[in-house]
Design goal:
By secondary structure, the protein is an alpha/beta fold. The protein folds into two domains: 4-40 and 341-380, Urease, subunit C, domain 1 (Roll); 43-259, TIM Barrel, CATH 3.20.20.140. It contains 16 helices and 14 strands. It has helices at 24-27, 57-64, 69-74, 79-87, 91-107, 123-139, 162-179, 197-209, 226-232, 246-255, 263-269, 276-281, 302-313, 317-323, 326-331, 357-362, and strands at 4-9, 12-18, 38-41, 43-45, 110-116, 143-151, 185-189, 213-218, 237-240, 258-261, 286-288, 349-352, 369-374, 377-380. An eight-stranded parallel sheet has the order 4-5-6-7-8-9-10-11. It has a four-stranded antiparallel sheet with strand order 3-12-13-14. A two-stranded antiparallel sheet has the order 1-2. A hairpin with a 2-residue loop joins strand 1 and strand 2 (12-18). The two termini are 19 Å apart. Bound molecules: N-(iminomethyl)-L-glutamic acid (NIG) and fe (iii) ion.
Length: 385
C-alpha cells in the first residue's frame, strides 16, 4: 500500500490504511515519517536451533571436499559433536551466546523466534537449554516460542538401547517440560540415523496428550514418510521437506499443516530445495525460516533466506514475505496475534530501507532494516529512520 499509515497505542495496532484516510483523531498524535521506506510486519523466524555450544567450521571444509552430512555424523561429528559441546557449557555461557544471535536477529527486523532444544539429549541438558530460552524470553525484546526437540538424534550413550531413551522422553521429559511450561511444541527428527516413523509417532502422541503442539523435521535427507505422519497427527507444521513425496504434499494440504522451508539448510548441505511451487499448487502454505544451527545453517539471516526462497524455491517476493510473516506465525500457532499489520494485532513492525518489496529481496544487503518496533516500542534496526 503506497503512502500507508499504521496507528498503534501501547502494544496494539489500532488502524492501518492510506494516510489520506487516517481518522482525524489520530492526526493530533506524534507522527513518524518513514519517508519512502517499506514497512512490514515484524519478521517471524519459525524454525531455529538458537541455543548450542561450539561451532562446526571444520565440517564445512569436509563437506566441500565431498564428505556427506550423514558420513560426518557417522564418524562422530555432526549433531553429536554439538551435543557434547552444549553439555559442556554452563547455563550462563549458553545464555550469553544465544543472546548475541538474538541481538543480531532483532537488528534485521526479526521480532519473534521459535527455538528448539535438542543439543542436550539428557534430562539435565535438555532442561538447561529450555531454561536458557525461559531466561532470554524474560530479558529480550524478541518473543521466544520454545520447542522441545529431545528426539533430535539418539544420544550416543543410548545407541545400543534406544528404547530406554524413548522411555525417558515419554515418561519423564515430556511430562516435565509440559507441566513446567518450558515448551509450547514438541518436534522429532524423522530420518535414517535419527528417529523412525513409529518412534516419532509414540513420542508425538505422548506430547499431544500432555498439551504440547506438534512439529516434525520431515523428509529432509530422504523421503521417510515424515510429512504424512505430521499430517496424520495434526501437526501444526512439517519442516524441511526437501524430499517430500506427492502423497506427502497432499496429506499436508488436507490437514492444513504448514510446510516450513529452510533454504539456508539446502544451500549449506548442497541438497535439493523444497518443491515450494508444487506444495503451494496443492494448497499447502509455505513458511520460510532460517534453521539457524551450527551444522546445516550457521546463519540467522532471515532476509537472506527470503531472497533464496525466491531464487531457489521459485517463490515470489510476496510469497516469501508472507512466508516470514503470516504463514510463519501460523507455523507457531500465533497467526491471530502476530505476522500481520491489522487492527488488533501486536504492534510489531520493521522499517526496511528499500523502495519496494521487490527491491528489498533483489538487492541483498548486510542489513536493510532501519528500525524495529516491538509491542509498540522502538527497539532495534540500525536506529535511524
Ligand atoms: O534442522 N535436521 C536436523 N537438525 C538440524 C541440523 C542440526 C545440526 O546439524 O546440528 C536441521 O538441519
Ligand atoms: Fe532444524
Amino acid at each position: 500500500m503506497p503512502n500507508a499509515a499504521v496507528v498503534w497505542s501501547e502494544e496494539t495496532i489500532q488502524w492501518v490504511g492510506p494516510y489520506q484516510e487516517m481518522p482525524a483523531e489520530y492526526r493530533k498524535e506524534t507522527i513518524i515519517d518513514c519517508g519512502r521506506k517499506l514497512v512490514v510486519p515484524g519478521l517471524v523466524d519459525c524454525h531455529t536451533h538458537l541455543c548450542f555450544g561450539g561451532w562446526r567450521g571444520d565440517e564445512f571444509e569436509l563437506k566441500l571436499k565431498g564428505v556427506s552430512y550423514q558420513d560426518i555424523a557417522r564418524n562422530g561429528g555432526g549433531i553429536a559433536s554439538t551435543v557434547a559441546a552444549t553439555r559442556g557449557m554452563s547455563l550462563g555461557d549458553l545464555t550469553r551466546k544465544a543472546l548475541v544471535a538474538l541481538n543480531g536477529m532483532l537488528a534485521l527486523g526479526v521480532t519473534t523466534v521459535e527455538c528448539k532444544s535438542g543439543y542436550g539429549l539428557d534430562e539435565a541438558n535438555e532442561l538447561k537449554q529450555l531454561e536458557v530460552y525461559r531466561q532470554l524470553n524474560r530479558v529480550h525484546e524478541i518473543d521466544l516460542v520454545p520447542t522441545f526437540l529431545g528426539a533430535h538424534i539418539i544420544p550416543p550413550e543410548h545407541r545400543n538401547h534406544r528404547d530406554r531413551y524413548i522411555d525417558l522422553l515419554c515418561q519423564v521429559l515430556i511430562p516435565r517440560v509440559a507441566s513446567q511450561g518450558l515448551a509450547r511444541f514438541c518436534d522429532v527428527f524423522v530420518e535414517d540415523g535419527a528417529y523412525t516413523l513409529s518412534e516419532a509417532q509414540r513420542i508425538l502422541i505422548t506430547a499431544a496428550e500432555h498439551g504440547l503442539g506438534i512439529k516434525v523435521h520431515a523428509d529432509q535427507l530422504s523421503d521417510g514418510g515424515g510429512a504424512s505422519l505430521a499430517a496424520r497427527l495434526g501437526a501444526v507444521s512439517a519442516e524441511h521437506l526437501e524430499y517430500v513425496s506427492p502423497e506427502g504434499m497432499d496429506a499436508l494440504a488436507s490437514a492444513g499443516t504448514v510446510a516450513v522451508s529452510l533454504p539456508l539448510a539446502s544451500l549449506y548441505l548442497q541438497e535439493p530445495f523444497i518443491p515450494a511451487r508444487d506444495l503451494m499448487r496443492r494448497g499447502v502454505r509455505v513458511a520460510v525460516a532460517s534453521d539457524f544451527n551450527p551444522g546445516s545453517a550457521p546463519s540467522y539471516h532471515l532476509p537472506l533466506a527470503m531472497t533464496l526462497a525466491c531464487l531457489s524455491q521459485g517463490m515470489t517476493p510476496q510469497e516469501s514475505l508472507m512466508g516470514v510473516t503470516t504463514v510463519a506465525a501460523a507455523a507457531i500457532d500465533r497467526q491471530a496475534q502476530i505476522g500481520s499489520l491489522l487492527p488488533g494485532y501486536q504492534a510489531d513492525l520493521a522499517v526496511i530501507d528499500s523502495p519496494s518489496l521487490n527491491h528489498w529481496l533483489y538487492q541483498f544487503q548486510a542489513n536493510a532494516c532501519s528500525a524495529v518496533l516491538k509491542r509498540g516500542r522502538w527497539v532495534g534496526g540500525k536506529g535511524h529512520l
